[in-house]
């Protein structure tokens, strides 16, 4: 999260530095160019005054030597141009060679010979390679006898400008580096409570109501937010505990009176007249008492299972090893066939209360409610990446799906959403023992582990009239530790 904050802050800082640095860089370049131009202007002014005296007196040897010496020292050709446009004094060859690269030179010379000081030629941008041409008329007004012209290579000036720009860029990087160096730990300190709140919310969504946020770190606003979050979670946890305690206490307190009532009702059986209506009323009362006892047992089991809110990794092979034999015995007693198709090595996150208890409930539903002939248990892993192979339990981020399906009566698509609600029962099963809590509790426990329980079509019915019932459990796959990756996988069930 603090990376995203830096992504916002750093570009703003770059824009601020650029807004200050670009005008300063332009000013530096203009100053360097202006200093160079003033130097050349002073030089040609001096040479123009010397040339006027030399041309008037005819003593040009000293001026010729000075112009040659100037060219030798600075590499800048200086020439005295006559009214006819020919070179009178100076290094003629160097001047002509430099003049060939300056298309604006004739205009400047013509203006100087006419007695005016022309504007300097060339572009002053540091990335342009044109020369600086400066001309000064020799003489005044109508007494102009020639012009002094210099053609200056600005490569050294441009190099100085680029060096200054590099220095300014380096100075501009210092505040950016300081910003990043300071903003990284500061943003981490500011946003750490937010990350902790996000992690706490994620764990709460998986059913862990004991998690609390750190209310001692971070800015004052986030500390107050963490304190409010912890207060809210205390209230939620207390409410959940009171609810479970009420269900557990109520079912426990009702058990003894209900047992006494059942014993009292059953003790009336010897005194009933077999020919009267008392026997029918007695049977109804006993059945209702049995149903109430089953409901109390389910409520107590629900309270116990919901009190366990921690999901933990488990090997599916280990869970099935303790259950499959009993499932086969139960299905054989009911005249049904059980098939198990589960690849070895699947490891997943076990819901609170145990995965075995949830599978027991689904198998029990198939035996009691579906009137099925075949019950099938399958498991597969759906990898997070396309490259993971089927049945590869080491694929991080995958989902293990366990399907319990049968070829029995099934549930209509319109009733599937209601079947996951507490105390709901299908009209076809009103006379079958049950409380309507099993699937709802299983769905809650699977959801507490970050998974999902959904109902789908099962196996095709033998008479071709439709499909049976299928319960699909999807739970997060857990990658195996590196130390156990080389261990042999258990044999399939």
TrEMBL record:
The lineage of its organism: Bacteria, Bacillati, Actinomycetota, Actinomycetes, Streptosporangiales. It comes from the Bacteria. InterPro entries: HAMP_dom, HATPase_C_sf, HATPase_dom, His_kinase_dom, HisK_dim/P_dom, HisK_dim/P_sf, Sig_transdc_His_kin-like_C, TCS_sensor_his_kinase. One of its GO terms (cellular component) is plasma membrane. CDD domains: HAMP, HATPase, HisKA. It catalyses: ATP + protein L-histidine = ADP + protein N-phospho-L-histidine. This is histidine kinase. Residues 188-241 form the HAMP domain. Gene3D superfamilies: 1.10.287.130, 6.10.340.10, Histidine kinase-like ATPase, C-terminal domain. Pfam families: HAMP, HATPase_c, HisKA. It is found in: Cell membrane. The keyword Electron transport does not apply. Its EC number is 2.7.13.3. One of its GO terms (molecular function) is phosphorelay sensor kinase activity.
């Amino acid at each position: 999260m603090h990376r995203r904050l830096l992504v916002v802050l750093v570009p703003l800082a770059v824009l601020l530095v650029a807004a200050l640095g670009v005008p300063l860089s332009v000013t530096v370049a203009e100053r360097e160019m202006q200093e160079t131009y003033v130097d050349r202007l002073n030089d040609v002014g001096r040479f123009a005054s010397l040339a006027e005296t030399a041309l008037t007196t005819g003593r040009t040897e000293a001026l010729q030597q000075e112009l040659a010496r100037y060219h030798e020292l600075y590499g800048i050709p200086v020439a005295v141009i006559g009214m006819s446009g020919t070179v009178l004094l100076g290094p003629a060859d160097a001047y002509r060679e430099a003049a060939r690269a300056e298309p604006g030179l004739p205009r400047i010379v013509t203006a100087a010979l006419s007695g005016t000081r022309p504007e300097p030629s060339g572009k002053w941008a540091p990335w342009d390679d044109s020369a600086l041409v400066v001309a000064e008329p020799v003489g005044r007004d109508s007494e102009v006898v020639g012009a002094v012209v210099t053609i200056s290579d600005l490569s050294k000036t441009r190099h100085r400008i680029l060096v200054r720009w590099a220095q300014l860029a380096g100075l501009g990087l210092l505040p950016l580096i300081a910003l990043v160096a300071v903003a990284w730990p500061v943003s981490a300190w500011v946003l750490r409570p937010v990350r902790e709140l996000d992690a706490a919310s994620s764990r709460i969504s998986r059913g862990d109501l004991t998690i609390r946020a750190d209310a001692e770190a971070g800015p004052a606003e986030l500390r107050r937010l963490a304190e409010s979050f912890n207060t809210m979670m205390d209230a939620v946890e207390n409410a959940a505990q009171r609810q479970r305690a009420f269900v557990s206490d109520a079912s426990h307190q009702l058990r003894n009176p209900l047992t006494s009532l059942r014993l009292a009702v059953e003790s009336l059986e010897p005194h009933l007249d077999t020919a009267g209506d008392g026997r029918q009323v007695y049977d109804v009362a006993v059945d209702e008492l049995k149903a109430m006892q089953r409901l109390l047992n389910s409520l107590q089991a629900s309270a116990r299972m919901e009190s366990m809110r921690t999901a933990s990794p488990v090997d599916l092979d280990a869970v099935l090893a303790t259950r499959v034999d009993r499932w086969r015995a139960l299905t054989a007693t009911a005249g049904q066939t059980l098939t198990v198709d589960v690849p070895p090595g699947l490891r997943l996150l076990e819901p609170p209360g145990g995965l075995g208890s949830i599978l027991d409930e689904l198998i029990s539903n198939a035996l009691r409610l579906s009137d099925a002939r075949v019950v099938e248990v399958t498991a597969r892993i759906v990898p997070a990446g396309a490259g993971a192979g089927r049945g590869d339990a080491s694929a991080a981020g995958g989902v293990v799906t366990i399907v319990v399906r049968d070829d029995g009566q099934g549930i209509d698509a319109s009733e599937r959403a209601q079947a996951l609600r507490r105390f709901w029962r299908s009209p076809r099963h009103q006379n079958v023992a049950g409380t309507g809590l099993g699937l709802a509790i299983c769905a809650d426990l699977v959801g507490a582990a970050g998974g999902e329980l959904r109902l789908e079509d099962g196996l095709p019915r033998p008479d071709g009239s439709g499909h049976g019932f299928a319960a699909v459990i999807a739970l997060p796959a857990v990658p195996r530790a590196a130390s156990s990756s080389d261990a042999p996988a258990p044999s399939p069930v």
